[in-house]
Amino acid sequence: MYRRTSKHQKILSKSYTNGVKTESHLEQNVDHQPVWEIPELRRVIEITDFDSGEPIVHKLELYKTDRIDCYDVYVDGAIWKKRIGWSQILAGIRKAMPRRVKE
Questions:
Q1: Residue 20: which region, alpha, beta or left (left: phi > 0; alpha: psi -120 to 50)?
Q2: Which stretches of the chain are assigned E, i.e. beta strand?
Q3: How much is the average pLDDT of 76-97?
Q4: How far apart are CA 5 and CA 8, in angstroms?
Q5: Dihedrals phi, psi of 55, to nearest 5 degrees
Q6: pTM for the whole structure
Q7: What is the rounded CA–CA span in Å between residue 75 and residue 56?
């Protein structure tokens, strides 16, 4: 263990006292916000495709999982992927809806 000098002890006690004052001041002024419950159904994405002549609507439902940044994704009521991230969902949509070439 290192030796504590009197100068070090003064600085340490001063910083501790300031920390306690700041902490007590913050506790008095804080408005406690209630914790929100995350709903089971977090997001819905509706895609309407007009390329085939008549509109085709696909509905993606994103449900919560054990991770805050992942979803269970259902497409038109059937499970597509379990516990998938937002960027992977967008990549899947991009790959499933390729560009239509001009005929």
A1: alpha
A2: 41-49, 56-64, 70-75, 78-85
A3: 94
A4: 5
A5: -70, 135
A6: 0.63
A7: 13
